């Protein structure tokens, strides 16, 4: 059994402003709670880390935070911990997971949600943090080895920019279209794919993680300025949930994760 993340706590950002899916719908649903392959989206993120030994998860919930308690009990096979409040236990064969729901304001930014989990992370030499609305087949164990070898404060996954539209080649101030950017040029662009790893040095005030700006703003900029952010390249599957069209690729990745876990239980 892969134990790479056995001692690495994992934070899932489960807040956000939600998404509207389906025609005629007007209610925003927390993207972490969107059903994919019969389970909430965040569950597949948990399962991905569990495949690499993850066992301690902190769900930084915002919008519809109360729903996480119900979903964990009724859809994820979790039972409430009799001692720790807002904590749920899940048995996956011989592997036992603990999931802790951390309530944060719906309007909180990503840095504020992370800071809400800080009391539970301060004694960890390294922790992981990712978005609960994104699935991939990134090799998390390889990324963990990469981060340790790089000796930087932070690492993230770089992935290819999804190509949905053709980009126009135009000169500033002109109206003539001179070309369409070729697909290989667009695909060469790398984006922040999440799946962060941080050492405990991230709490140093020099990196600006004070909640005044989102994690993706000042804190990452300060890490870049001090050459303390490295990127682990991933060229496999990666899918974010922004619209109904994203559900099919998310289902596909979730099915693959489920098959991998089933094979491990049988083996």
Automatic annotation (TrEMBL):
InterPro entries: G1P_cyt_trans-like, Nucleotide-diphossugar_trans
Gene3D superfamilies in the cross-refs: Spore Coat Polysaccharide Biosynthesis Protein SpsA, Chain A (3.90.550.10)
Any one GO MF annotation of this record: glucose-1-phosphate cytidylyltransferase activity
UniProt xrefs under SUPFAM superfamilies: Nucleotide-diphospho-sugar transferases
Name listed for the protein in its UniProt record: Uncharacterized protein
Organism per entry: Inhella gelatinilytica
